[in-house]
Task: structure prediction
Amino acid sequence: MYGLDATKPLLPNAKMLIDDIIAIAPEKTKLINELFNDIILYENRVIEAKKNKLPNGNYSVDLKVSLKKIKAKPNGEEQFVSFQEEIPVGLRDKKGSLIYYKKHLLKDGEANLKLTVDKEPFKVGVDPLNTFIDKSAKDNEIKL
Result:
């Protein structure tokens, strides 16, 4: 924290903000650096999905997703980064409203998920609200 320390600049700057956030939440240092200091992009997409009506009236959805995280340099050079993070997955009804939205701990590469909901889903998506900066968010959701 800086306060009125004569050895520190009196006007706040972005580095001070980042340092203060890290001081408050040191366990989030990696995330804070990715948000403020790095250029992080994603290539998340749904590869395939199918729904089945269950005997009890619920619906099960099987989906296969592909997840990639990219660290870009200011010169445009990109490097894939291995990761394991909570990624949101969602299902939408016929009107486009979310009937399921939950974060799943997923790692880079392909993953298979099985979801169950009590309303008929019409679309499924990985990061359906585009909370991550995705190189092509158009393939994050597909119709069932």
